[in-house]
Specification:
heterodimer, A: about 230 residues, alpha/beta, Rossmann fold, 2 domains, four-stranded parallel sheet, globular, B: about 475 residues, six-stranded parallel sheet, four-stranded mixed sheet, 22 helices, 10 strands
């Protein structure tokens, strides 16, 4: 992601204090723990955005899920703390998922990437349904030189990850994953691209276990390719 | 068959290994889903209709006391009787008493989730009153002694062969293999049951406060017969089924039929206001409306999850749910299944009875996308998860609590976070497989690695790479 952003002339900084947005605890029902971690996140990024150098800055995140935590679920998590809601709104206005940032803020579809392969795209649930991002990643993929894009069936069906869902109900999770993998194989693609590490870890974990020769890539990796 | 405790993990695994069930689930949910998608695309302002339906439900639920009293008054004015039931037991008692007073020997029923919820058939049988389900799917599961596995298609877990065997065994008839033949058998039996019945029991899809009208949608015509042929008609209706005005029906009937089966309208839509009038040729002499609470007012009291009561029971969330499509209805442990079951069962029965259900979702949100009243399922599920954690029930045991504490401690301290990242590189080495990934990890992570590899932690962390070269090279 850093590579792609820099190639487009974006100045990139990484705040080393940051760790996690709090989503794992929030999704597991531990809202107090989530709130503590989320407050830390908010305070770090709010301070940065208020700095002289951070005035025009954006927060870019290579995950639809983490981004939706900040942009959608922080409102929920802090609904009883009006003093923090201002911070939430300030930070979330400036927060973008990677593909959304390229398209909406940088107005870029062709990032000058090149990759030889047949690519299919898995819609991450949070990116698609919480953030409403559907066409952008596809346009970005199609603009990569050498890529043949193939839409799979059930491209918007959950892969079965769902955070702790995948280990609370592993059999259910894997049976959902089976269906996804069948769709990927049937699409004829040799590369699967998605924009969320959770899905990629889940799908990739089964593909490698089953020795299915489909390469798994984050959208940023594809866009950083110069092949 | 009474409700004990939901065992989602155990039951879902059985369902996943049941091949005919898996096939049936794919067929039925695909058929409903395709039909719904097409029907909703044909309506140009579909999302506006959903939003409008949600607003009306919100208004109704927030003023439920007012509308319930209005409904009661209008039903009485039309000559009906109104009964209030605080729970399943009271509702069954009321209905059985109505039957006893009317000297009822035989009851026909049309499809109703509320009667499934209170297990009314058991109460009739205990009282020595014969009761027959007349919806074909319900008739099948009544013969089999099972619960519905889908809100609108209760017997989808049964194959044609299952039904053929069941009919032959229970009805003492030869084996018929064609669905048409089986339907004909049921039709003939049911026809005479309608004519012999002293009482008909139905549910309702809507109860209109303004006019005291109950509305029933169906495709088989059995509800029309149930509510008109016997001399007594009893409708059991959950208190959330209200809509304020008669004119609201055009909107709700539009979204219900399309969301449920993809039809523009169901084959039959019955509007029932009180018993037969002196000028009517036929119709029941008595009309009783039994209003069922059974935990609903507890949901009403919870601002966070109140929208669970907006549900109009179309079943679209089931058909669109990737979890339901794999585990089927019975895994949810009670009469309601899929996303709506995952949110209302723990609330109606008590969260301690079904602590797994709020977690039985990947939070993908596909249910929210198709819900005709836009219930925000992920939001409600997250709230219920919080309640489970606070009540210290279910899979959120000591281990998980400790894990979350450890995670929190780590991510709250950058220095510890960095050390943990670094150390995990070395800790993982014993589990690293030939393909460079982690192939087997100890419990609870084995629940991942039993069927999936886990990515190995890189030797050099992102932070280190960032420090060295600001991420210039890969």
């Amino acid at each position: 992601m850093v590579k792609v952003l820099k190639s487009l002339g974006v100045e990139v900084d990484f705040i080393e204090e940051q760790t996690c947005c709090g989503q794992p605890a929030f999704n597991s029902g531990y809202q107090d723990d989530a709130r503590a971690v989320a407050e830390r996140f908010l305070s770090i990024f709010d301070t940065t955005l208020n700095d002289e150098s951070g005035k025009d800055a954006y927060i870019v995140c290579p995950s639809g899920s983490c981004t939706s935590m900040v942009k959608v679920f922080y409102e929920e998590l802090f609904k009883n703390s009006p003093e923090l809601l201002n911070k939430v709104r300030h930070v979330s206005q400036k927060t973008f998922e990677f593909s959304e940032f390229l398209i909406k803020v940088l107005n870029t579809v062709d990032v000058g990437a090149g990759y030889k392969g047949v690519v299919t795209y898995h819609d991450s649930c949070h990116l698609l349904r919480e953030l409403g991002v559907k066409d952008g990643p596809r346009e970005l993929i199609k603009s990569v030189k050498g890529v043949k894009f193939k839409e799979m069936e059930l491209h918007d069906a959950c892969c079965g990850f769902g955070g702790t869902f995948s280990i609370k109900f592993p059999k259910v999770s894997v049976s959902m994953l089976d269906e996804k993998i069948e769709c990927i194989i049937n699409s004829g693609a040799d590369t699967l691209v998605s924009a969320d590490m959770g899905c990629l870890m889940n799908i990739g974990g089964a593909l490698s276990r089953r020795e299915i020769p489909v390469r798994v890539m984050h959208l940023a990796e594809l866009l950083a390719s110069r092949g | 068959m009474g409700f004990e405790e939901v065992r989602f993990e155990q039951d879902s695994e059985k369902a996943i290994h049941n091949k005919p069930l898996q096939k049936a689930l794919v067929n039925v949910t695909n058929r409903f889903r395709t039909a719904r998608n097409k029907a909703s695309e044909d309506v140009p302002n579909w999302d506006n209709l959903r939003a409008a339906a949600r607003e009306i439900k919100k208004e109704t639920i927030e003023n439920l006391d007012k509308y319930l009293l209005m409904l009661e008054e209008r039903v009485k004015r039309a000559g009906g009787k109104v009964h209030w039931a605080k729970d399943a037991e009271e509702a069954s008692q009321i209905i059985v008493n109505i039957a006893r007073e009317g000297n009822v020997k035989s009851v026909v029923k049309s499809k109703s989730m509320a009667t499934e919820e209170i297990e009314l058939n058991n109460s009739f049988e205990d009282a020595g009153i014969k009761v027959i389900e007349t919806d074909l799917g319900e008739y099948i599961i009544q013969l089999a002694g099972e619960r519905p596995s889908h809100i609108i298609a209760p017997a989808i877990h049964k194959t044609k062969e299952d039904i053929s065997k069941l009919f032959s065994a229970k009805l003492g008839i030869p084996r018929y293999d064609k669905p048409e033949e089986l339907t004909k058998v049921a039709r003939e039996i049911l026809r005479s049951e309608f004519l012999n019945a002293d009482m008909g029991v139905s549910g309702a899809n809507f109860a209109v406060a303004e006019t005291g009208t109950i509305v029933i949608v169906e495709n088989e015509g059995n509800a029309r017969l149930t509510t008109t042929v016997p001399k007594i008609h009893v409708a059991l209706v959950g208190i959330e089924k209200l809509i304020p005005r008669y004119e609201d029906l055009s909107l709700f009937l539009t979204v219900l039929a399309r969301s449920a089966t993809g039809q523009k309208s169901s084959t039959y839509v019955s509007f029932i206001t009180g018993p037969k009038r002196s000028t009517d040729i036929d119709g029941p002499e008595e009309f009783h409306l039994v209003l069922l609470d059974n935990g609903r007012s507890k949901i009403l009291a919870s601002e966070e999850t109140r929208e669970s009561l907006y549900c109009i029971r179309c079943g679209a969330c089931l058909n669109n749910c990737p979890v339901y499509r794999k585990v089927g209805g019975h895994s949810y442990g009670w009469v309601y299944s899929g996303p709506i079951g995952a949110i209302i069962t723990p609330q109606l029965m008590g969260i301690d009875k079904a602590p797994e259900l709020p977690f039985a979702s990947s939070l993908c949100g596909a249910c929210k996308d198709v819900c005709p009243v836009k219930i925000d399922f992920p939001k409600v599920l997250l709230e219920l998860r919080k309640n489970v954690v606070e009540s210290k029930k279910g899979s959120t045991g000591i281990g998980e609590r400790f894990g979350i504490r450890l995670w929190r401690f780590t991510v709250e301290h950058e220095s510890i976070y960095k050390i943990t990242n670094k150390l995990s590189y070395y800790f993982q080495l014993p589990w690293k497989g030939r393909n460079g990934k982690l192939n087997s990890l100890p419990y609870p992570f084995s629940r991942w690695t039993d069927q999936r590899d886990f990515p190995a932690v890189a030797k050099k962390t992102f932070r280190e790479r960032w420090k060295n070269n600001k991420g210039e090279t890969g």
